[in-house]
Write a structure and sequence with these properties.
The chain is built from 17 helices and 22 strands. The mean pLDDT is 92. Strand 15 and strand 16 form a beta hairpin. Helices cover 38% and strands 19% of the residues. By secondary structure, the chain is α+β, with helices and mostly antiparallel strands.
Length: 558
Amino acid sequence: MKALILAAGLGTRLFPFTQQTPKPLFTISGRPLIDTVIRKLEDSGCEEIMINTHHLHEKIEAFIQTQHYAIPVHTRYEPTILGTGGGIKNSEDLFGENPFLVINSDIITDINLKTVYDFHMGHNYPVTLALCDHPEFNKVSLNKKKFIIAFRRKIPGNCSSPNKELAFTGIHIIDPEIFNLIPQNKFSDIIDIYIEMLARNKKIKAFVLNRQSFKDIGTPKSYRNAAMEDMAKETLKKKFPENLNHQIIKTRLPGDGSDRKWYRFYSKEKNLIMADHGIKCRDGISETDSFILIGRHLYCRGIPVPEIYLHDAFSGLVFMEDLGDTNLQTDIISKDKADILSSYKRIIDNIITMNISAGNGFKTAWTHQTPFYDINLILEKECRYFVLSFLNKYLNMEAAYEDFASEFEFIANKALKYPVTGFMHRDMQSRNIMVKDKTFYFIDFQGGRIGPIQYDLASLLIDPYVNLSSNIQNDLLDYAIQKLANFINFDENGFRISQRYCSIARNLQILGAFGHLVRVKSKKWFEQYIPPAVKTLQRNLDAAKENDFTMLKSVLRY
């Protein structure tokens, strides 16, 4: 058996994701679809494979060249796309006098291809199509004897001999006589050829799938759903093999400030959490990549983060340990001051360990935003963000960044003047700290980078979701400084100065984020946290005696 894999299509239904990545290189569990098809053909006893290419052909060809398949795998580029029929005709020289298999490069199925091929070899008809029941695509009519009688239109039967409509899977076995019907070097749709064959009273046999699965991935939604289902099964099989045959139930979890979607998968009494970051649109490090790379680095360093079980950077799906539904914000609601201090001291212990330990071996190439927390980031992503998203979008001011530029530059320089450099999480707030079995875990670490560790401490202490009192903040800052002194030598006074200005910079970012979430994302419930965030910023500006911050203080009296 020889085979042709059809991989020349433009993937228009998957636009814009196919602008940078051809559909055959879309991945599931990190494995390109076309590689899955090739391995499946190998396992079915295929002796040689041809792949026709057109759109982003060089990327498909480059991938094939990096692989070491057990059988010859060739690519044939079509400068002008020839369609499914033209692609088959263009590969005529490979197949000789024997029936050959044609398969789409973008299907997900557990169909035994050898069984389909053997079925074809057991009858005398020129074509066999593998069909399945897929209501959205059921456009192939067949009669009671499982001969195809029409494409793209329904043929009514009668009570004694009803016809049936099924979907074409993209798998067909074809006798070489088909080449006589396909024009040379012209665009041709193989379904049109099959319709012509029926008009000439040529019979086409159907191989009907029973329990075998088949998934179409022609749209972003169908691709994502297929990847999600396949990866959930694989994760549960590897992590909890005793649950292999149990039903898997998926539920959507409430979202938060990000655009990611979160799901919980249940199987018997075992759970998984899945983060959907979205399909990758462009080359380079994405947020998904950073989440995976930084998450695994932290986990290997012994930092309390969820274990990542399975991931696919292109589809944006990451399956990980389920840490439950309780975060720090909800955990401390009913606690007294002593218990709050105790919890926060344990968290600070872990933060300091993370800041120092995870800084070792951290690769800046893992970051999808900036590798370092530097002056440009402070000015653009925190200060300018505050002006545009909070002052202008939320408060409807017409503020100009330039009016605050000198004060912003002062804040940025002070924040970076006495840094204790290490790994910084950059979003260390109570909703990103989960509580499970009395252990605190850090999540949402994809924005991690190298920078002043004072920033994470500042983020924790001024967190508006919790709104710690000034006294508790001061006690915890003293504790953190004493704890850090056990690990490294540093200038305590300088540490406090940078921590104060990191607090101000973080506060500006928080208000910018709240303004964006309320006005742009219409997530109104964030609005309740704006007043405490403003008060914290006012308090820290008042405490910073080195500058009057006249402009900033004037706009905060809203």
